[in-house]
Design a protein that fits this description.
Rossmann fold, single chain
Length: 225
């Protein structure tokens, strides 16, 4: 494939569960000539094909020129406990994601694919889900040829850090998964590797704003939609 027809993939949140799988899959995809991950601290990655850029979220002007002809993948996600407070959580999962999208749009990035959450809604009484919903509304205001919002349910896969309640939730979700049919299908657990695969497929789906519920992410990863 001619390099002039390939894309540059930019990944934010590469140290997370989905981000790690995504980075691995991108470097083996011939449609991308370059994979750049933006991290606060350098990661130990196995592939020399990945370019790492240490960035300060407050200094986006230092990375603005890297967004042209690119697909931007945003896997940034925290928890209130990890962030330390609702305010700090909002700054990460809403404000930071919004700023990345704003800069990507300003610099003519072609696609913006972002990880949200099942149940995300700006009207939710749950602070986590409301934050994700408000983030989605903000992202939809920016000009991209392709905006793809992924709403995965409980993620399967091994995290670098332990999340006790999440692990309990995974066990329960796996056991009850066969019962999740009809409108409850979107609550079935999904492997992070499948979310990553679906994100790449979504970036090439064409023009428009697309929102994928968890069961649709699974179907997309299996190329059935």
């Amino acid at each position: 494939m001619n390099e002039s027809t390939t894309k540059t993939a930019l990944v934010f949140g590469a140290s997370g569960l989905i981000g790690k799988f995504l980075s691995e899959q991108l470097i083996s995809d011939p449609r991308y000539s370059k994979v750049v991950i933006f991290v606060r601290e350098k990661l130990h990655v196995a592939s020399p094909s990945i370019e790492q850029i240490i960035f300060n979220p407050e200094k986006f002007d230092e990375i603005e020129n890297l967004f042209n002809r690119s697909h931007v993948f945003c896997c940034i996600g925290s928890t209130r406990k990890k962030a330390g407070s609702n305010e700090k959580f909002f700054k990460i999962d809403h404000d930071l994601v919004e700023r990345i999208a704003q800069n990507a749009a300003r610099n003519k990035a072609e696609a913006f694919v972002v990880v949200s959450s099942v149940g995300a809604s700006a009207d939710s009484g749950n602070f986590y889900l409301r934050t994700k919903g408000l983030m989605e509304l903000s992202i939809k205001t920016f000009q991209f040829s392709n905006i793809s919002i992924m709403r995965p349910s409980i993620l399967l896969g091994m995290r670098s850090e332990s999340r006790f309640l999440e692990n309990i939730g995974k066990q329960i979700a796996v056991l009850t998964s066969p019962l999740m049919v009809g409108k409850f299908r979107k609550y079935k657990p999904i492997h992070a590797a499948d979310v990553a695969k679906a994100m790449i497929i979504a970036a090439f789906k064409g023009k428009g704003i697309f929102v994928y519920e968890s069961d649709e992410i699974d179907q997309l990863a299996k190329n059935t939609i």
